[in-house]
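Appendix C: a fully annotated inverse folding record. The material below is reproduced so that readers can follow the format used throughout the book. The structure is listed first as tokens, followed by the designed sequence.
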């Protein structure tokens, strides 16, 4: 459930950013197509895989691999912003807890 909310927020932010940069509804349509096409094409293959293998193990594996880019995102953003001191672990630390 929480992953679905995060996915929705990411999609809204991506579409918003694309519109702010391009100002074009055409660009939003292309972006939507590029996001939907793999889902449509790979959905059939995914259905066959889910029917043949243990669903719990597949779910755990898929969620693990989906979490890898999310874990790296703060560090990549810091690299683009030129923040050399930011460590990805600091982003996920509770507020008020600092090593300094």
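Designed amino acids, in order:
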């Amino acid at each position: 459930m929480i992953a679905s909310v995060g996915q929705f927020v990411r999609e809204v932010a991506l579409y918003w950013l694309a519109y702010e940069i391009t100002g074009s509804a055409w660009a939003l349509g292309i972006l939507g197509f590029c996001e939907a096409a793999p889902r449509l094409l790979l959905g059939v293959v995914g259905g066959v895989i889910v029917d043949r293998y243990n669903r719990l193990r597949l779910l755990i594996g898929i969620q693990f691999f989906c979490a890898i880019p999310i874990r790296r995102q703060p560090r990549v953003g810091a690299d683009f912003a030129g923040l050399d001191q930011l460590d990805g672990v600091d982003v996920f630390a509770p507020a008020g807890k600092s090593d300094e």
